[in-house]
Design goal:
Layout: E1 10-18, E2 21-29, H1 43-54, E3 67-74, E4 77-86, E5 89-95, H2 102-107, H3 115-122, H4 127-131, H5 136-201, H6 206-256, H7 262-301, H8 305-313, H9 324-328, E6 334-336, E7 343-345, H10 346-440, H11 453-488, H12 491-534
Antiparallel strand pairs: 1-2, 1-3, 3-4, 4-5, 6-7
Helix pairs in contact: 5-11, 5-12, 6-10, 6-11, 7-10
Length: 552
């Protein structure tokens, strides 16, 4: 496999009070750098210093130091990191090389606490670690959002189909109303002609006719006012019905919201703070355990030079030309303790180290559980905040609707009073007009079939009222038809959008599997490259294999 040609680069690292390092400066050239040396020579501490400069959070301070720092010079830029002790935790600050070290923490910083290394050691599943940088929650949230949008579009398309089925009936109603309007207009025209004839016949009784005409004109005005008031009443009642229905919907939506308490939010905040402190405390314990395990493993295999010398001086049975191993290891089963100098079984120390390592794993698992709990509480807090914001919006809407209902109810009472007053006044005017008409026409026609001028005016008013009502019905029906036709124009776009969403959902639902497949392929390709660079001829390949399960 061909490798890419790299540009020569140089780096310099300066570290102080990191791990077991007092202070050191290291220069690196391009290519692979091997840290060679005996155990307990601060190679791990140097790696921690590099990790801290790059952005890692797992560097530890010297046991006797309260603060430390690291500085990395690379390609003319300087990256700094400060560490300080805060209780049982180490707080990091500064300007590291990486803005987001997550990928490096997972796949480059391979100390013992590294998740990928732990998964390989304990034969756990690597899938979750490989996919951890992928925001699957965001993908799931997008799937939820698109599904909701698709459902809304489907509901709207169902509504449009229902409206479309109503069109023939609405068009028939419009035709019927138009026919009724034409009939009413023709009838009104006939009545108006009869009124003109009756007024011409009344010219001989001019004085009485003028007074009657004035009374009839006043009667027409009042009837027109009554028609307007009745129309306003009808409109107001419809508006009130719609507002009351909206109020019921808001109240139902409000009642469906889960109950929340200010104490719930406060207790969640307090629990998050407590868990964060607990997590930080566990991080401190894990860091200490890591240092202890690492130190004891190195001492079991060899020794720190100063401790070797001390043990050698205290070993009466060791010859001057004895080896380091002779000083520490009397035989394959015993070892000289580097803390008290006595001989103990190697298996006892190994068992103790294994218990410490198990405790470290338990603490790491405990920390992971705490972090999961913290994230769950944060999600619960976000849900409470969203619920409270929604409850407040509903409360404001309900207040506005209630105020509007009260205003319209007051207006409805005023209109009802106006209607009663106008009906009373019209009754009085009709009586007065009837009396005047009787005085103007003392002798009735023998057949009694002709309508009086008052009756003709009453009929004209009734026809005008009916005509106005029909015209409003025609306007409402026409608007409804036009709204349906306008809405149906969006049907094709909605159907196209629904198909787009279906495609997007299919893509999203297969994206995680595709990302997993690509990640595995990328991992295997990079491992081939690494093996080629390192020229490990005795290793055929290192790879991850995707294994599927057959579910019955």
């Amino acid at each position: 496999m061909a490798t890419q040609e790299s540009v020569p680069r140089e780096a310099q690292l300066w570290a102080r009070n990191i791990g077991g390092i007092n202070e050191t400066t290291v220069e690196l050239d391009s290519g692979v750098t091997v840290l060679a040396g005996q155990n307990a020579t601060n190679r791990t501490s140097l790696l921690q210093a590099f990790m801290a400069a790059l952005g890692g959070e797992s560097a530890s301070l010297k046991a006797d130091a309260e603060e430390g720092e690291v500085e990395l010079e690379l390609d003319g830029d300087t990256y700094t990191r400060q560490l300080r002790r805060a209780g049982n935790t180490v707080v990091t600050e500064g300007d590291p090389y990486l803005d987001d070290p997550e990928l490096a923490e997972l796949f480059a910083f391979l100390l013992e606490s590294n998740p990928a290394r732990r998964a390989v050691t304990t034969q756990d599943d690597l899938r979750e670690i490989i996919l951890r940088p992928i925001d699957t929650d965001e993908i799931e949230a997008e799937i939820t959002r698109l599904t909701a949008e698709k459902d809304e579009i489907s509901d709207e398309l169902d509504r449009l189909e229902s409206l479309k089925s109503n069109l023939p009936e609405l068009e028939r109603q419009r035709t019927d109303i138009e026919t009724q309007i034409e009939e009413k207009r023709a009838e009104l025209e006939e009545v108006k002609e009869a009124i003109e004839e009756a007024e011409d016949e009344a010219d001989d009784q001019q004085a009485e006719s003028d007074e009657l005409e004035e009374k009839l004109e006043e009667l027409r005005e009042r009837r027109s006012e009554l028609e307007d008031v009745r129309f306003d009443l009808e409109t107001e009642r419809e508006s009130l019905a719609a507002l009351r229905e909206e109020r019921e919907e808001i109240e139902a939506e409000r009642d469906e919201l889960p109950e929340t308490d200010a104490m719930d939010r406060e207790s969640i905040d307090e629990e998050i703070d407590r868990l964060q402190r607990q997590s930080q405390s566990i991080d401190g314990v894990v860091s200490q355990l890591q240092s202890i395990v690492q130190f004891n493993e190195e001492m079991l295999e060899g020794s720190h030079p100063e401790i070797r010398e001390l043990l050698a001086e205290g070993d009466d049975g060791a010859s001057d030309d004895g080896t380091v191993t002779d000083a520490l290891l009397e035989d394959d089963e015993t070892v000289r303790c580097w803390t008290c100098g006595s001989e103990v079984q190697r298996s006892e120390i190994e068992a103790t180290i294994e218990r410490l390592r198990s405790l470290q794993e338990e603490k790491l698992s405990e920390r992971d559980e705490i972090e999961d709990r913290i994230e769950s509480l944060r999600a619960e807090r976000r849900e409470i905040e969203q619920t409270e914001r929604k409850r407040e919006r509903l409360r404001e809407r309900l207040t506005d609707v209630q105020n509007e209902i009260e205003r319209r109810e007051g207006h409805l009472e005023e209109l009802t009073e106006q209607q009663d007053d106008l009906e009373t006044e019209i009754d009085e005017l009709e009586d007065e007009a009837a009396a005047l008409e009787a005085e103007a026409e003392p002798e009735e026609d023998e057949d009694g079939d002709e309508e009086s001028l008052l009756e003709l005016n009453r009929r004209a008013n009734e026809l005008e009222f009916s005509l106005g009502r029909l015209e409003r019905e025609l306007e409402t029906t026409t608007e409804e038809i036009e709204e349906i036709e306008s809405a149906l124009e969006e049907q094709d776009d909605l159907e196209a959008r629904r198909e787009e969403i279906r495609d997007e959902l299919e893509d999203l639902r297969t994206r995680i599997d595709r990302i997993e497949r690509e990640a595995v392929e990328s991992f295997n390709e990079h491992m081939d490259t690494v093996l080629e660079i390192l020229e490990y001829e005795n290793i055929d390949r290192i790879w991850i294999e995707r294994v599927g399960q057959t579910v019955r």
